[in-house]
Amino acid sequence: MAGAITWDAVGERVYETGVDHGVLYLVSAAGAYDTGFAWNGLTTVTESPSGAEATAQYADNIKYLNLISAEEFGATIEAFTYPDEFAECDGSANPSEGVSIGQQSRKTFGLSYRTQLGNDLEGTDYGYKLHLIYGAVAAPTEKAYATINDTPEAITFSWEVTTTPVPVTGFKPTSSIVIDSTVVDSADLLALETLLYGTTTPTPVEPSLPLPDAVIALFGGVVREVTEQEV
Predict the structure, then answer these.
(1) Under 8 Å between Cβ of 36 and 197
(2) pTM for the whole thing?
(3) pLDDT band for position 224 (cuts 50, 70, 90)
(4) Structure letter (DSSP) for residue 91
């Protein structure tokens, strides 16, 4: 880079907004996220990483180093509704059609959603980011049912989500991947979206969530060695 720094140059005023294209993925007995369902009515996904906290270590009467704890990925999902298939992830079972019982085992699931990227030239047509979440488990949360009045509002459901990371060759395990459409190759992005959302032509493809290694391979990612300090 040459020359002086320039702030807020034309075309570089980038921002991120919105959430759409939510998809729920159920996990098979083999550990594959091979069944996807549209999540309509998705209103908010609040990502809440935790951990990565420093613990100071002292020696020779000085601060010797900081040890950093493992980082975990969590989120809060809010929506007006949810796929019927999410019931088993929310601790419900259906012993017969139209009958639901709670306090059942909660199934692990995957999730993908999209956030819009905008800038000062193209607005929200600038691009988007794909967010892929693995190993998610939804905790019980309250549901508030209120009377209809002169300013009615639709009920919003909310779930606190924790995750268990999945393996990534050459890297630490992860629970989340983000793909930026303004950076990656468009053909590679289309290949990923075909897997995520499925297609009917020319050959039918059922929606699925590829594991991190498969996603990285789609974009020509390079595998590297993990050092002892990173383990």
Answers:
(1) yes
(2) 0.87
(3) very low
(4) T
